[in-house]
Amino acid sequence: MRTFSVPVGISNRHLHLSEEHINQLFGENSTLTKKKDLSQPGQFAAEETVTLIGPKGKLEGVRVLGPARDETQIELAVTDAIKLGLNISARDSGNTEGTPGINISAGDKKVSLERGVIAAMRHIHASEDDALQYGIKDKDMVKVLFEGPRGGILHNVLVRVKSTYALDLHIDTDEANALGLKNGDTGTVIIED
Amino acid sequence: MRTFSVPVGISNRHLHLSEEHINQLFGENSTLTKKKDLSQPGQFAAEETVTLIGPKGKLEGVRVLGPARDETQIELAVTDAIKLGLNISARDSGNTEGTPGINISAGDKKVSLERGVIAAMRHIHASEDDALQYGIKDKDMVKVLFEGPRGGILHNVLVRVKSTYALDLHIDTDEANALGLKNGDTGTVIIED
Questions:
Q1: Which domains does chain A have, with CATH numbers?
Q2: ipTM field
């Protein structure tokens, strides 16, 4: 068994928009305005927010992340989805086959999304150097241990390796709250050889 | 190492009220009206609901559980508490020293609670027969394993033994959603001797 430490980054509910949907929601030829950089290089929180409208409720002020993507994707905690009346499952980013849709509004503009609402599968971002150093590779599944009064071990944590990534464990608010974690806390990756 | 199976019961946010607070919120000499029995014998969900008002937000339709208790106690998921603007910690039931207060309203009646908002520490209810059969005792701390795509192991699960208890693992909505659990799913208790 080998172990190494990762910093915890908690993802609040958010969405990624296609250029087409950015134009439909914020006006023709509009672009996202950067509010602040995120831990992964090139990614940013935008000034733009939307309202998500599901069959049972709505969520206001949901943050758009940039840059634009090929396909619109909405990442919620399961707690959020239950409030909206949606049944979502944990998916790797981009795997939206068979996922529920939702209505997205910004001011008086609206987009009706046919699919793309997921619970992001918990995952570790790692650079190629990190992967070499820690003996992991893209698509590995590992376990991560957390200490503390609400400690425990999360299984099935997906490893994603890319030269531009910074080492970071991304979990959602349900996972963080269940385990008593805050941004910047540390988890211990467990690799069972 | 020994193991045994427990059924999972998910506690939505709820509160227990003292007789004094029942009278203040629902009228002099009022009592709670049973809506349905809960898994633990004698405990019930009441018809009565309240609004919880915190420094940053409010939650409507929060269910009162009966019967009345000596002290009012509000059990929230951390996700709920963040919405209300409260910083809560995982506590054993009844251990409300140093916990935040909140305003409770029902119609035009209001109670200002000085303390008593907690995240219930995850726990297993077991009868004395269960305890004998599975080799556990009151106040033991055990681990519980869950299978599935969001599986994992929760540490520091408190054992509570009482003759009237039915075997049940109680977790909150954050814990259930983080681990992909539904009511009636099964966990495996792990006892490391």
A1: 2-9+122-191 (2.40.40.20), 12-120 (no CATH)
A2: 0.95
